[in-house]
Write a structure and sequence with these properties.
TIM Barrel, ten-stranded mixed beta sheet, 12 strands, alpha/beta
């Protein structure tokens, strides 16, 4: 078996799994203001960006051949109704319009959720101390339509409410956006690996946690049920989140379903590698590429990753 491992040209010739920049989606955080490029301390090299700065990063992503970007918004103010999430002049809606003016060929995905926009930090309308599922669907549908109207190429609900894909599909179709695809965060787990993201998006819940709607990390068969239901409701692409701790579920989904499979290498996965590399415990580039290759090998054809730019430069 070692014959074909002897040199890099031989290893390259027989390599089974390949990475390409077009497989990556770069997450970006857009905030109010002008000339803002505020580094996220827990995610070195990632920033909260005003729209003018965001457009520059989008142009760079396009020049690197990255498959697209996904936008997370930080509104000027928050309230109990998450009104900034579905306002026509909301931060994400304005950002999408700006990107489409300046970098029209770049694929733009929008995260459809409420946690960045609610004063309490939960993903929906809180009634009697818990998130009301069906009331939240109205907010999500309105957000998705407003994103599509602004020019988003794909909408990506991440809230984990039951029935949200069907509600969004119905709303998009009714508003004349039948061709706008839905990338569903179909199996999103209540994971500790989201920690750094909460700083980036300023979205930590003010009370309790999200385990009543995000999935129990112990449940794999339930994840397949969630994915199946979302596909039945109209999801065009399904996502597993996080990625590395759930490679088995990426493989299960790839073997079972015939839609594109995405995986999100989340903030904690990124920050662990960066922190270890800064301490001299890991080679940053090798760890980055090995982790991305593992996600791809497991079956994900689309990878959301904060390493997208660095990996694209190397590839």
């Amino acid at each position: 078996m070692r014959r074909l491992r002897a040199t890099e040209p031989l290893r390259s010739l027989v390599r089974e799994t390949h990475l390409a920049p077009s497989q990556f989606i770069l997450p970006l955080f857009v905030c109010p203001g002008e000339g803002v490029r505020r580094e996220i301390s827990a995610m070195p090299g990632n920033f909260q960006l005003s729209i003018d700065e965001l457009v520059k990063d989008c142009a760079e992503a396009a020049s690197l051949g990255i498959g697209g970007v996904i936008l997370f918004g930080l509104p000027e103010s928050k309230d109990e109704l998450a009104s900034g999430a579905y306002a026509e002049d909301g931060i994400v809606q304005r950002a999408v319009r700006a990107i489409k003016r300046e970098v029209p060929r770049l694929l733009v995905i929008t995260d459809v959720c409420n946690c960045e926009y609610t004063s309490h930090g939960h993903c929906g309308k809180v009634v009697n101390g818990d998130v009301d599922n069906d009331a939240t669907l109205e907010w999500l549908a309105a957000s998705a339509v407003s994103h599509a109207r602004a020019g988003a190429d794909i909408v990506a609900p991440s809230d984990m409410m039951d029935g949200r894909v069907a509600a969004i599909r119905k709303a998009l179709d009714g508003a004349g956006f039948a061709n706008t695809p839905i990338l569903s965060y179909a199996a999103k787990f209540a994971s500790v690996f989201y920690g750094p993201f909460r700083e980036a998006a300023e979205s930590a819940p003010q009370f309790g946690d999200r385990r009543s709607y995000q999935m129990d990390p112990a449940n794999g068969r339930e994840a397949m049920r969630e994915i199946e239901l979302d596909i039945e409701e109209g999801a065009d692409i399904v996502m597993i989140k996080p990625a590395l701790p759930y490679l088995d579920l990426i493989r299960m989904a790839r073997d079972r379903f015939d839609v594109p499979i995405a995986a999100y290498q989340v903030s904690g996965e990124f920050s662990m590698i960066v922190a270890a590399a800064r301490n001299g415990w890991l080679d940053r580039e090798r760890a980055m590429l090995e982790s991305l290759t593992a996600i791809r090998r497991a079956g994900a054809s689309i990878i959301l990753s904060y390493f997208a730019r660095d990996a694209a430069r190397l590839l």
